[in-house]
Design goal:
It comes from Halobacillus seohaensis. It contains 13 helices and twelve strands. By secondary structure, it is an alpha/beta fold. The strands form three sheets. The chain has a seven-stranded mixed sheet with strand order 2-8-7-6-5-3-4, sandwiched between helices. A three-stranded antiparallel sheet has the order 9-12-11.
């Protein structure tokens, strides 16, 4: 590792790759492993999106570089989605930017906004990529706790003055990975006031904006009046349209943050392949019936798993969004212990809550991204392991 930089060499190992290695080893021994650790849809990309890609891929004009910030059609589709879905108006030229997945955009925004040593307030538990991107940008990740007893709503008043002095950005994520928690617009309004008062850029990761159940509709942070003065929101087609491998997302909102990000990006990646952007536009311009049927599938899987957890005495609530169950581990176990026991004794992979921060201790994240028969099998094995009867 002599060629790696200090920042790269001091990154903690990506937890998911550790479980992946263990999974491979068990599979080589002939053990049937059920992986409920993967945070990505198992369902295929809807065919109308694939069809658009195929048509566009055969046009020579689409083989050239994309405009830096993304093509007009994609940016217009994002703006029109925000108008239709949230009643938020966006200028597609200055307030919308195409991304090669939102992960890329979040990481590059962090490096575009930070000077060495600057702080970023990040949710704990939260998506681990935030901390890694901050570290790689020579910044300091400052976790703020999210507690079950407060419904995982940030208690911003508890952030210390010195932490605030140091910080440049405040990151939020609802519906939340890993907790599945959702908030109302009032929480975003408070966060926007707080960010204004303390001169923070407010960054909302809305990767699960459309993955919601029953009549619940997740708000956009840009629905807060005046939010564009301080806030950007990241969106992704990965989770809502089963397009993780396509690498297409966007960021909307504050012009200055978007401009800084676009400077980093135009010197790094020259945007996404045009046919993928156009297929992404088709997704955003669609009637969302594919999203609805996906959500119905996740909802059913979640109900199924929750019923099984209840039988073995594990406590978890039904989330209003995401495809995750955030469950308390049984008494006497740590997150890591319990996740290891599940893998060793039941052949079921879940993610220990501590993969998402210190406050994740005492929980596991169960990802509902496998077909229902596999979930039933996983539930039966868990019941057997916990002595809750035979499968
Ligand atoms: C999956 C995920 C992302 C990344 O999505 P891409 O658009 O595929 O890069 C970002 N944030 C959260 C919280 C996620 O779970």
């Amino acid at each position: 590792m002599t060629y790696g930089s200090k920042q790269v060499n001091s990154l903690p190992p990506y937890l998911f790759s550790i479980f992946h290695q263990k999974k491979k080893k068990l599979q080589e021994q002939g053990i049937d492993v059920i992986d409920l650790g993967i945070g990505a849809p198992d369902l295929p990309t809807p065919s109308f999106i694939i069809n658009r890609l195929t048509v566009e891929a055969s046009k020579p004009d689409n083989h050239k570089y994309s405009p830096y910030g993304g093509c007009q059609e994609f940016k217009l589709a994002v703006a029109s989605f925000y108008k239709k879905h949230y009643n938020v108006s966006l200028n597609p030229e200055t307030e919308v930017l195409a991304l090669i997945g939102s992960k890329e955009g979040i990481a590059h925004l962090i490096s575009a906004a930070l000077d060495p040593g600057d702080g970023v307030l990040v949710p704990d538990p939260g998506y681990p990529v935030y901390q890694s991107a901050i570290h790689l940008a020579y910044g300091a990740g400052i976790p703020f706790p999210l507690d079950e007893k407060n419904g995982y709503v940030p208690q911003l008043e508890s952030i210390s003055e010195s932490e605030l002095q140091r910080s440049k950005l405040l990151l939020l994520n609802y519906p939340s990975n890993p907790t599945g928690a959702t908030v109302g617009l009032d929480t975003f309004t408070k966060a926007a006031d707080f960010a204004k008062k303390h001169k923070l850029g407010l960054v909302h990761d809305a990767a699960y904006d459309l993955v919601t159940f029953d009549d619940y509709k997740a708000p956009s942070i840009l629905q807060v009046p005046g939010a564009k003065e301080i806030a950007v929101e990241f969106g992704s087609l990965s989770k809502s349209f089963n397009m993780t491998g396509w690498r297409i997302g966007y960021v909307v909102g504050n012009k200055e943050l978007i401009r800084s990000l676009s400077i980093v990006k135009s010197n790094t990646d020259t945007s996404q392949f045009l046919p993928i952007q156009k297929a992404g536009a088709a997704a955003l311009n669609s009637d969302f019936s594919s999203v609805k049927s996906n959500n119905a599938i996740y909802s059913k899987r979640i109900d199924n798993m929750l019923a099984a957890l209840k039988e073995i005495g594990m406590k978890a609530d039904k989330p209003r969004g995401t495809f995750f169950i955030w469950a308390k581990v049984p008494g006497g176990y740590s997150s890591q212990n319990f996740a290891e026991k599940l893998l060793d004794e039941a052949g079921v992979i879940v993610t220990p809550g501590t993969a998402f921060g210190l406050k994740g201790e005492g929980y596991i994240r169960i990802s509902l991204t496998v077909p229902i028969d596999r979930l039933r099998e996983a539930a039966a094995r868990m019941k057997k392991m916990m002595g809750g009867g035979s499968p």
